[in-house]
Every structure is written in structure tokens, then in C-alpha cells.
Amino acid sequence: MSLAIAGMGWVTPLGSGIDPVWERLLQGDEAQAEKITEQFSNQYYSVFRVPESALTGSPRHPRLRRASMISRFAAAAGLEALQAAGVKLDSQSAERMALVFAISNGGVIYTKRFYRDIVEGGAQSASPLLFPETVFNAPASHLAAILGITGATYTLVGDSAAGLLAIRMAEDLMTNEALDYCLVVGAEEVDWLLCDAYRRWRLLRLAPPVEPFGRIDRGMILSEGAGAILLRRDGPIIIEGTHAGGNYRKRAEAEELMKRILRDLSRTKIDFVISSANGTFIDKAESRVLQQVIPDAFVYTAKPALGESVGAAGLWQVILGGQALRCGELPPLLHARRTIPLRISLARVSVVASGRAIVLGSGVNQQVAGLRLSIR
Amino acid sequence: MVKSTSANGKKFTARVAVVAAGVVSPLGFGLSETLDSLREARDCVNRVTRFSVAQCRCKTAGQVPAERLLDKQCNRVRARRLHRASHMIIYALGEALTQEPQFKPELTVIGTTSGGMSYGEDYYRSLKQGGNLRHSPTWIANYPAQKPVVDALEAFGIAAPCQVVSNACASGTNAIGHAFDCVRSGRYQRVLTGGYDALSELVFVGFDSLQASTPEKCRPFDRHRAGMVLGEGAAVLALENFNAARARGTTVLAEITGYGISTDNFHLTQPDPSGIGPRRAMERTLQSAHTSADAVDYINAHGTATPFNDTAEGKAISELFDRVPVSSTKSMMGHSLGAAGAVEAVICLLALQHQFLPPNINFRAPDEDIHLNIVANKAQPALVSTVLSNSFGFGGTNASILMRKFDA
After folding, report:
1. Which of A90, A174, B258, B371 could form a disulfide with B402 if both were Cys (CB 3.0 to 4.6 A apart)?
2. Could you give the number of structural domains in chain B?
3. What is the DSSP secondary-structure string of A109-123?
4. ipTM surpassing 0.85
5. What is the reported pTM?
């Protein structure tokens, strides 16, 4: 079953809106790193945050008054996708739309604050206002309320592959002819606690740059934001097929899984691959598999420019793939060595020949998935 | 096969069989112990031992005994590194695969609300209080919500991808419902589904802070109900295309025949008092199953025993159904959140197989505003052919599934 992307929305550390963010990526811009710390630690971490200006003009809704940043990012991206598709929802059309959310860490800022109060002051200090926002499906609930969606709403939790798994779920949901649209949103917010956890896991670098496909896995930089795509059954950018992939137990097994996904998706000529390379062990695994399976395809990752947004990452990759197919070019790959044995370009490059691309979603927490895009 | 379209537009080709199931909860380890607890109407809620509840109004929960859980793991050394949520889902999956060792799912859809939350708590406490962080890599690695599912699949050599649904307290039913749709649509032959959640301090205190949990007994639908108690557990169901299951001669435990989902946008934590959300979920389930309310013999209610939930759910049920027996088995084991829908689906399965109505314990006096036929305090023998199971959650998410007895 194939689906089409009717509209897209993007909130990133490079700003918001599909065209402005895309233009900045084409220019070779990179998000500004911000150093963050925590009261009880001297350790600083660099993160790519969404600038306040990116949310100017985003929706005002009672549901968002006390909501966490992740909910605000998601709402802004979701509404942009609908607007781009020219879809205005009324009670009838909202009933024919499903909402699928992808997240990884969820509302971590409020979760930490809620638990901090318990640790510092005991259970009686816990805030009943914060607790509901710690629930994984709070951002989806807010967006459903803003849009008036009364049917299927799902939140999927996973790693950087969660976004592609959410699109796979959307594909399954759209077999139901009672649905005209499925809005898929990936969102994440960044916090010191996450940085510390990923550093202890040896996956984080203390400061940029993120060096994709480097000789040494120096680590990633965490970022935040949201991506949204509105799916329907026809349109110019087609999701030809999704691959639900699987789970790897050890890092060494990730490669086998990626190979299977790429082989299944590359039975036709592929122009380029939107990779998950983020400066971690993922890069070497992807690099080896890409060399073996589709050595002729261009390879691009936006993670040096935008950071690793985990739950939002898969949606960002699909947006990148869709934009590249639509515009016929890829942005420059930042901070990469010229000698990488992959077909990369350090300058913006024209790519569309067959009009097909693969998005490879390789998460650092055991999940891998993929999908193939094409343009009519 | 002839394709038909249901009232809510779904095109379907396949009947969906439940071919195996496994469960662990405060009611017991496995189907047999769970059945005994249900028949004997055991109250499996007791004082919380895993963390301090000194400052909480509520002091009790349904808990799975930790040592027994660890004893059930084949590799105790490795098991000690895993989160107890992993232990629970490994146990449940192991029981299901004992019934169907050859079951090779193409997809896994599992519900949870909090993953390995208690490891996140350990990590934060140690960081903040300058404690020992020697175990932090284990805590961090086992915190993500997908990890217990991946652990369970790995323990039994299953390579299927997993989708982890986190729709608050409806997660388990949403996971089963989506898995059902996947098989019914013909896109998949076999899907493994279920839910899990382990008790954690953050969540326990969270419900306490909302005053949703009670210092008293959990009394769903009772006039004097004062709130919920939490629980924990895991359950899995192996779903298969009915014809494929029959063709290979496997035992069909039951069929899932309908699923409905709705979202009410009333409030993040409170249901619409009109009951419109639960009502829509139940109506859509009946439409999806091409059946009428008259066909339903028993409803396993969401029944958290909070004033708001039970009033809204009670209103919705009484508007749709005429004196159908209803119980909330949360009265016996607490609310296991992401596991609840899955554990309750297994309870429904047992009701169908053993022809009885599971009890709603601690019930003393009916609420004048809730007009339900409650299965009060004792299990009852009954002819049960079709059962409905409800789960509703924060965020206004509502889900119901319909299961039918299968006679070979």
C-alpha cells in the first residue's frame, strides 16, 4: 500500500517552517549550540534548542497554556502540516483523521521537575498540575483536542526509529477506508538529564561539531523540536512502502538488520539515502551497509546541522527526503571527511534521476526501520 | 474470500483467533493461578513495599512478588540486570509460547505507560543526592519503554519488530485492538500483542497527588467509592488469522471480533461526564464486530473506582446495554495501567473458556446514579459467549474490544 504526503510541518533548532529550514540547510547553516547545566552538577552539555522565535505565531489554545515544550513543538508542526495541505477540519472531517505520535523521552522537563519535588520534599510536595504532563500521550492529547480529532489517536514510544514505525502504523491504519487522513507527528524536548544519561552511555559529545561517518565515534549532540506529515492516499510525494525493520540485541547485529531493510527497499534505482548518522556507532554500521547494498546512492544526514532529536528524528528525515525529491537537490553534508567511502557531497548537490529515496531510521536503542519515497 | 465493509468503513477479510495467552499479575503467575484468584474473589491488594508511601494518602497496591518473579527467570544472573517489567513480560510471553511454541509473529504491538520508570528514578536520585552511580549504565539501558519488549522477544528468539503503544491507561487495549486490525485487514497473519507496567514511585505519587487513589479499599461502581489503587503486571496474546490457525490444527482459545477507539477532548485527566468517549468506543466496537449490544454477555469495565470514571462509564454502559453483567476486576488487583487492558483481555478469555463472570469485589452499595448489573463480590457461573472489555486513559483516549467464545 502506498501513501502520499499531503503536507509537512517542521520545528527545529534552525527555526520553523518547511521552506525556511530547508533554505538554511541548503545554505550549509548549522544550529547554534547552547550550553546547559543542572543545579546539582558542574557538568555542562551542549544542545541544539529550538529558538523562541521559531514558535512565534504558533497556536494559542487553552490546552497549551501549561503544556510542556514538546506539546508546543508538536502543535506548531502539526498545524503547519495541515495548513500546507490546505486541510481545514470540521467535526466530520476530524472524525476521518487519525493521529499517530512518535516520541522517545516525552515530557522529560516536567517529569524531572515532578520527581525532583518528590525527592526534595517528599510525596506531599508533588504537583498535581505537573503529573498529567509527564504522561507519554499528553502531547498527542493536546494536539487531538486542538484539532478536534475524536477517532484514533496513538502514541508510539521508541528510539530514533519511532518516527518511521509511526508511519508504518499510519499505513496500517489507512487500510481503514473510514479514514481520509493520518497526521503523523514526531516530537522531543531536550534536557540536561537526557544529555547526562546519553553521555554515561558513551553516545554523547560534549560540544559540536557532530562528525558523521567519522573514524572515531565521537558522539552526538541532542536537539529538540517536532516534525509532522499529513498522509492521504494520493499526492505528489509518495511513501511507496515502509519497512518495520526489527530490533537488534547487540550493536554488531544492527548492521544485519540495516542490510535487510536496505535490500528490501532498494530493489529499484535509488537516488539518495537519508541516513541516521549522528556521530555514534550507528554511522559505521550504516556506512558499511550502504557501501555494500547501494554504493551509487548519495548519502545525506542532517544531524550535524540539526542534532539528534530522537523521537522527532524519523519525521525530520522523511521531511528531508520529501523536500530533496521536490527540490531536486540535497544540502551539503556538514563536518564530514572527503575520504568517506560513500557518495556524499560537501556542497549542495542535484540528486533526482529516478525520483526515489530511502529513509533509514537507525536508533541507538535497538530499533531500526526504513521507508522508500518517490515523487510523481 | 468475500470482502465486506463494516459500519465504520473498515474493509476486512479475516477472522482473528487468539491462539495463546500468558499473564502475570497480583492475581497470580499464569492462567491457572489467575483463574483460581478470580473464582475465589481474592483481594490481591496489599501494602506497598517497593518504596516509601509514608507521605501518601494511599498506602496499597496490587504487587507481583519480586522474588518469585526472579525465580521464574531462566538466567538469574542476567535477569538481575533487567528491569522487573522485563521479568514480567518475559514470564507472560513464556507462558504463551508454551502453548504455541511455533508462533512466529510478524509484528509485536505492546502497550505500556511507564517502561522502566523505576530505573529512571534510581538514576535521578543517585545523581541528585551524590549517590553511587555504578549501576547507572544498567539503569539507563533498561529505562526505555521498548526495552522490556525487546528483552522478551530476545529471550525467546523472536525477531519481529515492535511497536510500543503508550496511550496511558488504554495502552493495553489499544495495542490489542491495533494488532487485531492488523490481522483482520489481511496485512499480517500473526501478531503478538499485550501490555505491561511495573509499579513505580513517580506514577504512584502522581495518582496520589491528583487524589485519584484511595486510602481505602478499591470499590468500583460502589456508592462510597473513593478512588483507585494501582497495580502491575503483564499479559500477552498471540493473534493469528483464524483460517491459518485452523488449517495448521492449532487450538483457538477465542476470537477477537471487534475493536473501537475514540478520543474525547474534554480534559487531560478527566473524562467527559456525559460518557460520550466511552460510549463511542463501545459503539464502534459493536459496529466493527457487526453485532448488537444484546449479544454481549459480560462487560469487563475499566472501573477504576474514581468518582468521575465510574459515573461516565456507568452512564455509557447503561445507555447502550440492558442489564448486562458488569465487573471491574481492578477491585481485586489494582489498576495496572498499560498492562490493564491486556490482563483484562486474558481475564475475559478465562471467563469465556470457563463460563463464569469474574467478580467486582469490595462492593457494598449501588450508586443511585449508576444503573449497572454488577457482579458483586463473588464469581458467578454463567453462559458467556461474547464479552466486552473497556479501557480508558488520560488524554481522553478510550478503547474497547469484543471477544467471542470459539466452539470447535
Report:
1. B258
2. 1
3. HHHHHHHHHHHHH-G
4. yes
5. 0.97
